[in-house]
Amino acid sequence: MASATAPAAAAPTLAPPLQQLRHLAEELRLLLPRVRVGEAQETTEEFNREMFWRRLNEAAVTVSREATTLTTVFSQLPLPSPQETQKFCEQVHAAIKAFIAVYYLLPKDQALRTMTLFPTTVSGLRASRCLKYQEITKLQLF
Q1: 78, 82, 88, 112: least CB-packed within 10 angstroms?
Q2: Among the listed residues 115, 85, 108, 98, the one whose alpha carbon sits nearest the alpha carbon of residue 25
């Protein structure tokens, strides 16, 4: 006679933390080719430059915060659990997609001008993240 209760569904197994990070890196690499000059929207609405830059800055701050969190939790032992890693990776991925979404609000006629400024902004963010990571690792050595 068959049991009246169905067996409990097995919980999905998550990849180990470092494998999840590799997967996140690959997903982010796949997003890059989609961000090109000229892919921004065409609109008849008046472009509000101040609003755009405010929203882009907010999105950049969110990306920076999530990247800092990810860097911090992986700069020390023990590594986060697979469940925690999944949460961190999802937050980084969502923050970067939100940043790209704001970029797409930029009208095509403004895109070229903005993209000439963008590499400098990204370089500044990378430099600040690098310095932050160096500060964290120095603290752990002592």
Answers
A1: 78
A2: 85
